[in-house]
Amino acid sequence: MDWLLNLPLVPMTVVILIATWIVTAIIYVVITRLAVGERLRAFKAISPGMLPPLAVIFALLIGFLAAQVWSDADRANTAVNREASALRSAALVGAQFPAEVEHRLRALLRQHIQMAVQEEWPAMARQSVTLTIIPTAMAQALKLALDLEPRTPGEAIAQRELVTALQTVLEARRQRIALSTSTVDAVKWGALLAQVALMLVAIAMVHCDNRAANRIILFIFATGAAASLILIASYSRPFSGAIAVHPTLLLQVMPEAGGAWGL
């Protein structure tokens, strides 16, 4: 499902709606053709009371999956916000040190952001990045901060703050990389799609003797189910797909080559 989950929102919506309507039409045609003679009496013997329990199960599945994908998306946004804030703090604290140290630190921060945007983000979108990749720029920046020899009490405080900020950057990076592998697995998708299919079949059987009402009810439920599937699919991968977390904040705090930094 990679191709579908990576589509923009509008094409994804169109594909899911059309696919759901096609499946619904097939189920309607099959049940209608089968609903003759003894099979018609068997279908009509199915109690409409089975529909509410199926609907409750479907609603619970949607609720659990929505909670998962929304939580992952919020955590991904929080991790990127923390990383950008820590990078900004490191740039500000670095101004308390001699110009040579400050310029070196800014260059390393800039290198880290460039690598995150140009290399890590595309890899996270493909879910192919791992924590085994060492952030070289951050490792060098942390070594630079630890090797500093403060000359004043102010520089000693600034050194502690700088080390803390760089550690926060590394921790936030670990979090976003870990979250980039989050997704709705095949078992969950299978259970959800099977529940939708069962609901459609049950509705078609219960109302098989009234074709006009059957078509209306099937269309309404199919459209609602498709909307739920669109909701889950659009948030299923935090760093790719229709609603993805972008490195905008990191770019905003990137130190400029001339010595300034983002707002």
Features:
10 helices; rod-shaped; 263 residues; mainly alpha; disordered C terminus
Got a strand count?
A: 0
Mean pLDDT: 90
| N to C succession of SSEs | HHHHHHHHHH
Total helical elements: 10
What is the CA-based Rg, rounded? 27 Å
| Proportion of helical residues | over 70%
* Assembly level: single chain
Strand % is under 5%
How is the main sheet built?
Answer: none
Q: Write down the domain tally.
A: 1
Shape: rod-shaped
**Which structural category fits the helices and strands?**
mainly alpha
Distance between the termini: 39 Å
Low-confidence stretches: 259-263
What does this molecule look like?
This protein is mostly helical and 263 residues long. Helices cover 76% and strands 0% of the residues. The protein has one domain. It contains 10 helices and no strands. α2 (9-34) packs across α8, α4 (51-94) packs antiparallel against α8 and α8 packs antiparallel against α9. The longest helix is centred in the N-terminal third of the chain and has 44 residues, at 51-94. It is rod-shaped, with a radius of gyration of 27 Å. The chain starts with a helix and ends in an 11-residue tail after the last helix.
